[in-house]
Predict the 3D structure of the following.
Amino acid sequence: MSTDTLLSFEESLEKFDPAMGLEVHVELNTNTKMFCGCPAVFGGEPNSQVCPTCLGLPGAMPVVNAKAVESAMRIGLALNCEIAEWCRFARKNYFYPDMPKNFQTSQYDEPIAFEGYLDVELEGGEIVRVEIERAHMEEDTGKSLHVGGATGRIHGADHSLVDYNRAGIPLIEIVTKPIMGSREKAPEVAKAYVAQLRELIVALGVSDARMDQGSIRADVNLSLAPVGTGSLGTRTETKNVNSLRSVERAVRYEMQRHAAILDGGGSILQETRHWHEDTGVTTSGRPKSDADDYRYFPEPDLVPVAPSREWVEELKGTLPELPREKRGRLQKEWGFSDLEMRDTVGAGALGLVEETIAAGASPQSARKWWLSELARRANDSGQEIADLGVTPADVAAVQALVDAGSLNDKLARQVFDGLIAGEGTPAEIVAARGLAIVSDDGALGAAVDKAIEANPDVADKIRDGKVAAAGALIGAVMKEMRGQADAGRVRELIIEKLT
Amino acid sequence: MPEIPGSSSPRGTSGRIEISRDEVAHLADLARIDLSDAELEHLAPQLSVILESVASIAEVAADEIPPTSHALPLTNVFRDDVVTPGLTAEQALAMAPASEGQRFSVPRILGEEA
């Protein structure tokens, strides 16, 4: 669908240095909207969570949600920001039906938090410091459906339908300073920043932080400058990049697209671009409005926010352990290698492993089940590992049965089959499927006798003292008993009978 | 911490304030209002008069008076994060010129591509 010419990634780096700026919008998980008491939950019937204030009806007066201010400050503090002693909201004026007021209430030159940083860890363990310019409070917009055109887009649409449930939900916009000098790592840095910012938001508990539902949205600003000049070129802003993988891809795509234009003697048009997840390209949006065109001015209906230093100090005390520090602590506690830890985090299984260990499993067994067994199954069925229907308590219970000698690994896998199929608890599945290991001498002895009879050569070898040959008989017994024999006891019985 | 802004008016404190015909046309465009040439000619001087009237405030504001965006010396007016009753969808949509599928129906959006 795109006719953009791209330079190869390598060639773009030979000629140009990339600079990035990332704007991440975080929808807060407050009970109510930013300026009114309407519910801020996701998924209600259209226009069922609205009131005169968020519909912008005449005479309606906004009042700031204290919890949203608190969440904004906690995000700011976790990002090592200063917290403003005094700041105001501002009206950002634009005419578009997603805001019925004809302006968005935002903050302009007085953000609640500013001048911070987030230290981001790359794959190889390298730490990159991403400087934060600001984090400010604003409100989300309504959702539009475009009717009558192709594939729900504005272009060619006949009219649009708007649902204002989302209008007014508190948003925190977190803006980085230009990230320069990452060169070939720029796409990875962008992805790692958004991923680790997301983890921080999760640890703070201030948002659902679901990129797929839009509760975290990233805009990627990118520009190129001739290599080694340290200057900033004209940027484009790619909007609504809604997965971590797309953040990386969008940076890479825009680097290659800019490079081709600049290398061909052209110049970059400052504009917004739209990211297309399906095709992996960006397309031209609209020319970027000058800030002047938004005619920002202080919101007269809201008084300034002036958080006391006592409040700020109190909130500092509520900050959770930062995700990166926590990972370091857990790795040490669990005795995982760097690779094991990276795989665990990469599979999205850190929390699951942590809970499984808390439920009594050893770190290595928790890691083994989640990473080798359950991650593979999630991958096969195209699910998130957390959505398989297996809980950390289940995994710990299965491992406890293995430790007690009631299950071996092979039988445990069948218990996971049952868990995924929703057949009940591990104990119920073991009972219903008849999976428990048999260590009863009567049943085992009969199977051992049968195996000896069927394999006289092997039996003779063992009688001659070649105890190592017992393996073949154990295998035969296991086969006879569908894998449920207690292998250790079988070996003892074979040796008892033949020597 | 950012300074409290607004300490100077970009238009100064005295003299005639002109808003040009082109500026009015630009604002009309941003506001999606279609104005004819005659209307632009008519409105530009009128808006200049309004701006001038407002600017007269600057003449009485001395340097030691900080600019303000609010008449009341209040800060930190907050509400608790508690749901309060709003409108039903029926009530909300009753005020709409048109609706469809429990949503507000608005005319085709021009000049945007999303």
